[in-house]
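Illustration: Stage 0 sporulation protein A homolog.
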Amino acid sequence: MSKINIMLVEDHNIVRQGLKRLIEMEEGLSVTAEAGTCAEAMEKLNNNVDVVLLDIKLPDGDGLELCRVMSKSNPRLKFIALTTYDDAYFIRKALDCGVHGFIPKYASFEEIKSAIDITVRDGHYLYPGLGLDVIMKLPQTGLTDVETRVLQMIAAGETQKDVAASLFMSLSTLRRRIKGICTKLGVETVEEALAAAVKKGLIE
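Result:
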């Protein structure tokens, strides 16, 4: 059986090199290209690539948009998202953007190998514990009650420190939440998230 050729798109060199070493130790896998930005990924993409292990947040753009662009140039590519976002709404958005598999960055290498194998054979892979049927039934609004509350409090003029204290979470956790909100709404900043939420009728 021929090897599965993989492209690594990850901006953290240590993570990318660690993954590369682990993948190259597997008999049926090979890293044929690697990149740390969207631009570099487009430049290095070649016809030998079968699977793209793709970080969603890259220095020069959105990994989901990169997935859309790459899919147009090579429809046979399989994309597996590597990300810190593991909530159902985000996964559904990633699937809608053309991602075939989803692996949180805390997953083991064995799970990553399984994701690659299953995605190539069967077309889709979701890490254990979250079913595709659950994701596809999610409402389109995307934000949880807590996330909506976060936006409401920020819109009311409260500082991030005050919001975190009111919701009994650390400031770093709140900031991860805000990043997740921005990703769900397809924006980059808190200000854009507030504007998008108002437009969608999620907050006033």
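Reading the tokens back as a structure: The chain has two domains: 4-136, 145-199.
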